[in-house]
Amino acid sequence: MKAKFLGGGNEVGRLGMVLTTGKYKFLFDYGINPTKPPEFPMLAPPVDAVFVTHSHLDHLGMLPWLTRNGGANIYATPPTLAVAPILLYDTVKIAKIENNTLPYEQIDVDNIIEAFQAINYGEIVEFKDISVSVHSTGHLVGSGMYQVSDDKKLVFTGDIQSIDTHMLYGIKPIDTDILVVESTYAGKEHPPRVAVEENFLNSIAEVVEREGVAVVPAFATGRAQELLMVLENTDYEIWIDGMARTVSNVLLSFPKYIKNFQRYKKMLRRIRIVRNNADRERALHGDVIITTGGMLDGGPVLNYISQLNDPKNGLFLTGYQVEDTNGRMLLETGSIDLAGVATKVNMDIKSFDFSAHSGHKELLEFISGCKPDTVVLMHGEKREQLAGEITDREVILPKNGEEFEI
Ligand SMILES: [Zn+2]
Ligand SMILES: [Zn+2]
Predict the structure, then answer these.
(1) Ligand 2 centroid from CA 59, angstroms
(2) d(Cα 94, Cα 348) in Å, to the nearest integer?
């Protein structure tokens, strides 16, 4: 087998890996960095099939380019296929607003659905003498790793989460010869989740006690739903807004993919959904507002910050804030860019590590549980420390654009 990263090899983001095995070429993930302006991976060669691990833009934001160029079938789980067009239409919309060019247009997103092929956990796609199956990774509703079975077995993980969360069970190791695994948190550990949740709930209680509102920016897929479940046993007036609202509703169609589906459904019925500007006004008098964008770069969250910019209100970040985003600027300077004006945020600002990625020790445990001969560490910037702790196995640290033999 031979592999080549089109992006996301020695970096977090814009992932794409071409695998050549026998007479087949497969593409695993094809994402963009949703930065301003967006960053794209290298262009893909013609492939026989595309396998998508999950519905985050750094894993699927480039798919419409394939469709535009007469691309192959795109395999993913039903939840991933349902959420993908929402993210892609939004990407086209944002590019238009920001005057950025994309290598595709809205019509390509319209057409992409024809290339979609659903594959459920445990199911197999056959290609003559090669088969490919998909298994849960605990990262998002519907996130999957792919196992390619040729003479040797290869697993491509996408993003993985080891711990059980409210929405999902953690990833289970799978026997393989070659393991291509993410390494976003190489060299870093997460605090215990129970402590993070307790801290988060206490912080919200403080805000509500002083009659403030807790604004909680969250990524639309994954984070927003998990946070709702963290708030399950409270009686706060909770509002949800932006793409987080759309995605939370779409996921109601996939009971088999959610750990506590009945509880999730009940929670979605109990919270209040922002449907129009009048609702947005009402939300200002609620207790908690969960809203996109998670990095404060757009979406209704900016409106809430400008309306609620007062120390009695909370602004609780729940995800990693990438460089050059408003969220990162807030953490570093206390200000954000609101419609071109640097604005000091006077709210009670806190960050909580609700990461959906395995930490360093969990990555090592997962890798040894899979018993591979060869480990390819991708989707990471600090892979050396992790590589140094993997003994008795060949370790490959791929660079974008370099083809390597496995
Ligand atoms: Zn992800
Ligand atoms: Zn990722």
Answers:
(1) 6
(2) 29
